[in-house]
Write a sequence for this structure.
């Protein structure tokens, strides 16, 4: 690992662990709030609908955070295994600037860009109806 020194790896490990602790503490707090809110009942159906909508939005947001927790855990595992900082697709060194911006990154910028393009293509293809067949 040419550009990734032991002190830099320790730095990323601390950043990742701090972010993980923050996310887990926040998730705990949200769970408590949701269970407290579920005890509240509103006579007005509109008030109840607003509370349910807020809860639904919060849960979608928390699902994204759950995925982030998983990515952080995987990055910490890569640190333990000694593979942190290497692109999981092509094996190239992930740029330090990318790791500074996103310490849980597992792809170099080129592979990440390619993967994102592929994801968009799949979404576009999945969203289109197939062309009518001349034989149908």
């Amino acid at each position: 690992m040419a550009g990734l020194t032991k002190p830099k790896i320790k730095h990323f490990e601390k950043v990742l662990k701090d972010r993980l602790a923050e996310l887990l503490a926040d998730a705990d707090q949200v769970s408590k709030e949701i269970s407290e809110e579920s005890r509240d009942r509103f006579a007005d159906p509109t008030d109840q609908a607003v509370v349910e909508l807020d809860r639904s939005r919060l849960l979608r947001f928390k699902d994204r955070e759950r995925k982030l927790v998983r990515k952080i855990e995987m990055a910490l595992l890569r640190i333990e295994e000694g593979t942190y900082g290497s692109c999981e697709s092509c094996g190239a060194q992930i740029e330090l600037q990318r790791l500074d911006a996103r310490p849980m990154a597992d792809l170099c910028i080129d592979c990440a860009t390619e993967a994102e393009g592929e994801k968009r293509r799949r979404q576009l293809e999945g969203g289109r109806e197939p062309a009518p067949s001349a034989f149908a």
Remarks:
- The chain is about 70% helix and 0% strand.
- Helices lie at 6-39, 45-81, 96-101, 109-127.
